[in-house]
Amino acid sequence: MDLTLSESELVFRDQLRAWLAANDPGREPAGDEPAFAFRRAWQQQLHAAGWAGVSWPAEYGGRGATLIEQAIYNEEIVRAKAPQAANVLGLAMGGPTVIAHGTEEQRRRYLPPILSADEIWCQGFSEPDSGSDLASVKTRASRYGDEWVVTGQKVWTTYAHHAKWCMLVARTDGDAAKHQGLTYFLMDMEQDAVQVRPLVQITGEAEFNELFIEEARIPQENIIGGEGNGWAVAITTLMHERATLAFGLQVSVQIALAELIETAQGSRANGHMASEDPVIRQRLAQLLIEAEVLRLNAYRGLTAIMRQGIPGPEGSLGKWQWSDVNQSLTELAMDIAGPRAMLADHEWTYRFLRARANSIEGGTTEILKNIVAERVLGLPRMR
Amino acid sequence: MNFDFTDDQRAIKRTAHDFLAARYPLGAVRMLAADDRGFTEEQWGELAGLGWTGLVVPEADGGLGLGAVELVVIQEELGYALAPSPFFSSVGATLLLVAAGTEAQRERWLGPLASGEARGAIALWDDYAGWSPDHSEVEASGGTLTATKIAVADAAAADVLVVAGADGRHYLVDPGDPGVAMTAARALDPTRKLYTVVLDRVAAEPLALEPGRISHAYHTIVTALAAESVGVAQRAMEMAVAYAKERKQFGRPIGAYQAVSHRCAQMLLEVEGARSLTYWAGWALDHEPDAAARAASMAKAYASDAGFRVTASALQVHGGIGFTWEHDLHFFLKRAKANAHAFGDARWHRDRVADLAGV
């Protein structure tokens, strides 16, 4: 057991840390368009210095980073409070999927503009009637010669209004078994048959969109991984970098917790500082402990992947536990705020509301519990 | 970066697991639970033969000089087997002697403790004083101690008692001294024997005043106890999962119902969290002393809660049969609950975590 970084890992970390310190892009401007332009410029800056797509092989413009280096990268980016790269879905999901399942021609075509943020990617998986049960998607694609015609509706598509390409899972064979009639397409978003409508969430913001697809055209060569193989390709997209993304999540919790402790130490309520209240101290301590569990489980998960090639049981727990912790943390922040919690412009109100989605997005807690129960503990399937 | 045991540590774990499975089937645990003494000299000799009693004693003092990680490995397996043994108590006393024994005390005790010829126990808690030694009412005067200590584990098996005084001082007391009165207590957990120990002007030799080293010993002790709870919870979870696969109601295994399967998934979350913290604490005790206090209290707080919750949840999965004396589950619940309270409960350790984080 050794929880320290090796010489070369320390060098990697220090290089990145130094680069981030010297290239602070400043604060993100308000408003969707300015914020997006800022994120695109930031990604171009990362790319020029070789810090975009670090997990990708060097021959496709990446850095060929090891799993630990990827973990360090995610930790350091969050620690530096760096902005999100504009093409986050292309970098974290689309690129790795094309690398894993695409043809050499597809890799040469799609990968460079992902890295440079010239072509933004979005994800067309969920539908109004297909949330947790992703394989039940109803969006249909029918083939006419060398072209596919697609009709359907997608929801929760981040960045759809900026995107050039949509990772689209559609049903291509209505007679095949549920998981076998699906195909994974790259759909060009720049066509009138695709309409994007922002979806306003409980925070009042619109991070996501709905897609209305009415006879959109997709050329045959835009299929990734072959016709009827969409489920396997989609799983790659979903699984990719989950283990190393856990590092970014746990660091974001550590940062939020440090802010919350500072808030508690500076908040006078009922005649004393919130941090002196024994119940609040207990809850802060419990969060410190659970944040540590997140960090340690992320390391254990990585060790298991390096040793066995597959994530260990703790790998399936990370996202579930993170959502629990982040929700508890923001709930405690509201309690510390006292009467100010009722004001929508209080700094923690947004985070409190946004955290409600944590146990839904990227796999609901209920689905994650099913996965743990069935695949880790071997309990019988309900379905 | 590698969050995994070394080959040697894996070998220790495998040996411990196989040995304990062979020697402590639950039928044997049940018999020892009903027995006043709770272990046999033959069983003790076997543990000593494996080198466990000398694990934490430096090589120069006749031990193996291994670290906290190795102790964590063995303790987790002892918890998994629910093996009744004075091992943990004796190791605890040994750790305090290693930390703050005078030259003469080390000379006298560490060799025999390492070889297993002698056993130690810790007399720590006053009635009503809580977890912190700060409120102890022990009277020390003229080289003697007068005190009443409760819940002293394995006192009757001990050849030397380490008694906590007020102000963090610790003393060695001979349990055979006529001023020592020992009465067996009825323990919540019948697999660990507890005693009330009354000291009436008993001759007592102080350990050296080494608060830092004594604290480190206690961090090791609470980490070892957390590890035991991880093993206890792991076993209870396995029992619940096995039962949920086999027990049928309404025509299907109860584990097919999400009310049951999600409960089992929650057990895994808590067992793995407790395990991660405990392994980290073991590593920090050996390699990152600045983090050891925080890691040990985090491990003890989380494992205290997880140990109880997982065993209680396993009982719920078993339904009525789990509430019977005949079923073995209650022994795990009782050990987990007793461990949750020994050496500081979750609330006390969370308070320490808050202090150490500067809250």
Q: What features would you describe in this structure?
A:
The complex is a heterodimer of chains A (383) and B (359). Chain A is built from eleven helices and ten strands. Chain A is an alpha+beta fold and 383 residues long. In chain A, strands 1-4-5-8 form a four-stranded mixed β-sheet. In chain A, β9 and β10 form a beta hairpin. In chain A, α8 packs antiparallel against α9. The mean pLDDT of chain A is 92. By secondary structure, chain B is an alpha+beta fold. In chain B, α5 packs antiparallel against α7 and α7 runs parallel beside α9. At the A-B interface, α7, α8 and α11 of A face α7, β10, α8, α9 and α11 of B.
Itemize the secondary structure elements and their pairings:
The complex is a heterodimer of chains A (383) and B (359).
Chain A: H1 7-22, H2 32-48, H3 67-79, H4 88-101, H5 104-115, E1 121-124, E2 140-144, E3 147-155, E4 165-171, E5 182-188, E6 194-199, E7 208-219, E8 223-224, H6 230-239, H7 242-266, E9 268-269, E10 272-273, H8 278-308, H9 318-337, H10 347-355, H11 365-376
Parallel strand pairs in A: 1-4
Antiparallel strand pairs in A: 2-3, 3-7, 4-5, 5-8, 6-7, 9-10
Chain B: H1 7-23, H2 26-34, H3 41-49, H4 68-81, H5 87-100, H6 103-115, E1 120-123, E2 125-126, E3 139-141, E4 144-153, E5 160-164, E6 170-173, E7 180-184, E8 194-206, H7 211-246, E9 248-249, E10 252-253, H8 258-287, H9 289-318, H10 329-341, H11 346-356
Parallel strand pairs in B: 1-5
Antiparallel strand pairs in B: 2-4, 3-4, 4-8, 5-6, 6-8, 7-8, 9-10
